[in-house]
Each structure stands twice: as C-alpha cells, then as structure tokens.
DNA sequence: TCAACAGTCTATAATCGATATAGATTTTTT
DNA sequence: AAAAAATCTATATCGATTATAGACTGTTGA
C-alpha cells in the first residue's frame, strides 16, 4: 500500500494537470474537493514544489500550478519521492539498497529473483503512467472488469 | 516494501522446503542461520501452522516441517497472510476494499486503472512463485543483470 | 516416572513512522 | 494599509512493527 501522502500527492497532481489552463489553484480548493486535511496537503505541495514539479504564487490570485509537462511526470517518480523505493525488498532497489541478513548468495537467491521481476514490472507500468496518460484514460470505461 | 515478518516467513518456508527430507527443523536453527530473532520467528511459524502450511512436533527430535506440497505454496498467499493486500491502493483490493475519499467516479478513475494494472501483474508473478519454483531457480545465475 | 527437550501462550516494551493540527510569518496584490 | 495565500516551525497523536521475557504444555527416551 502506498502512503496517504503519496495518494494525496497523485490526486493533487492529476487535478492540477486536468485544470492546467485555469491558472493557479488554491490549496484550500484541492483540500476541500478531495477531503484532504489542508495542513497536511500544504506540506505535500511544498515537497512537489521543491522537486521541481509545481510552482506557487502567493497573495490574491495565487495558488499552485504545474510547471512540468504532464508527459514528463510519472507515477514512479512521484511514489519514489514520497514513499521511497518501489521494490518489495531492499536488496532489489537501486537507491535504497540493503543486503538481506538471511541471504547467503544474493546473485543466486530465488526469492530475490521473484522480487526483481515484480519490481521491474511495477516500474515499467508506473513509468508509463504519466499525468498525460492518466488524464487520457480518465472517463472511459474499463474493458475488463 | 514487505514487512520483516513476511520476509522472515518466506525465508523460513524456502529453507523448510529445501530441507524437506531432513525431518523437523528447530526454530533455533532457522533463527540462527537467518539472523532472525527467535521469539519473533516463533510467532511467525505459529501463524504458518495455523494457516495449514506447516506442522510442528514438540520434544526431542521435534521442530517444524512443511505439510503442504511446495508447488501449492506461493508468495502471493504468504505475503497476504502477513502483510494483507498486495495492491497499492485500497480501491483495487478484493478483501481489503475501501473507497477513496478523493475519488468521484471509481469506474473511470485514471489513477485506479494504473494501480489495477500493477496489482494484476504483481499477483500474476507472485502466484507463479511457488516454493517449488523458487527452489528450482535457486543457484542458477541470472540472465539479465 | 523423571528429566531434558522443544514448541506454545500471555503479556508487555520499545520504537518508529505516518498522519494530522496550530499558530506565527512572509510575500504578493489591490 | 489591508487582505489574500503560501511558508515555516513546532508539536501531538496514534497505531503498527519489531522485539523480549517468562511461564506453560506436550513429547521423548532413559
């Protein structure tokens, strides 16, 4: 499960991408619309600003807005920003690598191999899921149920 | 990331499957070999016993042993047993379903669709990763690095 | 039948991170 | 100057994860 922080971040990003033309959007608007605690959301949006995805404007007519192209922002990066590694085990991550105490030989570990596969598929799908892609599929019904 | 509990459980199961012929194996042996806190491991093995995967024998010559066929025990079931849902969002789980507060229409939600895909792939890979399969690939070097 | 062995049960502790809230401050606009 | 809105600092809460201790039960073999 991803954290609420990450979930709120994704929700906010999708909204900001969807309403890209409307100019800056208020924290309070995003907060109300998504039932997201305002103060909590503030911190999240600041993180996204520091990450270079959003920018903000103070004072009247201010708010947050997307500065990256919706095709350049993908779910993998956003999840990594808030929740750290995407992998199920530390031994199959790049940035958060940690050796398993239980493991005798990592290169031939059967468990690691499975987790490696899961990670690869997960990253592939999430990298492909850009804000642009998410918006594009929005509103159309699912093929398989 | 999966919990240590789940990681320890998988490690113990793989060991028990690997040494299936040797008869009951001591908690203390699994604990030492894997640097797993003994008391913590006890609880884990009990859970696996309650789940019908292992059985145990008390007294001298006792210990834990696999009672399910190694082909019948897969990583998806084990992870679900200890960590709950495999999905990244509550709205794409079966047993732990919960509606997202932020979501207006779940059926057409673009975020949900992506998470659905990740879940499907993850479940597919983990279901396929039985103890038998994990053991079979063990010891052979990886193709891609 | 007793002693050693090894798993089982109950209870509790220590941490730690995720989630959330409050209030003062800074910047911008009108 | 006043209002609007984001930013900063700090604190609180809560629950789950991880771990430990000790008493108890059942089994084996001498």
Please outline what is shown here:
The structure is a homodimer of 145-residue chains. Chain A has 145 residues and is mainly α. Helix content of chain A is 48%, strand content 6%.
What does this structure look like?
With 145 residues, chain A is mainly alpha-helical. The first copy, chain A, has two domains: 4-66, Arc Repressor Mutant, subunit A; 75-129, no CATH class. Helices cover 48% and strands 6% of the residues of chain A. Chain A has six helices and two strands. The first copy, chain A, has helices at 4-18, 27-33, 38-50, 75-83, 110-128, 131-137; strands spanning 54-57, 63-66. In chain A, strands 1-2 form a two-stranded antiparallel ribbon. In chain A, a hairpin with a 5-residue loop joins strand 1 (54-57) and strand 2 (63-66). The longest helix of chain A is centred in the C-terminal third of the chain and has 19 residues, at 110-128. In chain A, 33% of the residues are buried. The model of chain A has no long low-confidence stretch (mean pLDDT 92). Chains A and B meet through helix 1, helix 5 and helix 6 of A and helix 1, helix 5 and helix 6 of B. Chain A binds a DNA duplex (30 and 30 nucleotides) through residues 3-5, 24, 26-28, 37-40, 42, 45-46, 56-64.
Please describe the structure with a list of short key phrases separated by commas or semicolons.
6 helices, homodimer, 145 residues, mainly alpha, Arc Repressor Mutant, subunit A, DNA-binding, two-stranded antiparallel sheet
Estimated radius of gyration of chain A:
18 Å
Which two protein chains have the largest interface (Cβ within 8 Å of the partner's Cβ), and how many residues from each? A-B, 46 and 47 residues
Shape annotation of chain A = elongated
Low-confidence stretches of chain A: none
In this structure, how is the largest beta sheet of chain A organized? 2 strands, antiparallel
List the strand order in the largest sheet of chain A.
Answer: 1-2
């Amino acid at each position: 499960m991803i954290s609420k922080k990450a979930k709120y971040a994704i929700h906010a990003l999708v909204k900001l991408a969807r309403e890209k033309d409307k100019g800056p959007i208020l924290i309070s608007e995003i907060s109300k619309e998504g039932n997201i605690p305002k103060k909590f959301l503030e911190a999240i949006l600041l993180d996204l600003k520091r990450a270079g995805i959003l920018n903000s404007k103070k004072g009247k007519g201010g708010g947050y807005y997307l500065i990256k192209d919706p095709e350049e922002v993908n779910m993998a990066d956003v999840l990594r920003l808030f929740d750290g590694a995407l992998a199920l085990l530390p031994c199959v991550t790049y940035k958060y690598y940690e050796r398993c105490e239980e493991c005798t030989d990592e290169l031939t570990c059967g468990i690691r191999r499975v987790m490696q596969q899961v990670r690869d598929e997960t990253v592939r799908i999430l990298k492909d899921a850009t804000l642009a892609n998410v918006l594009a599929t929005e509103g159309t019904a699912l093929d398989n149920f």
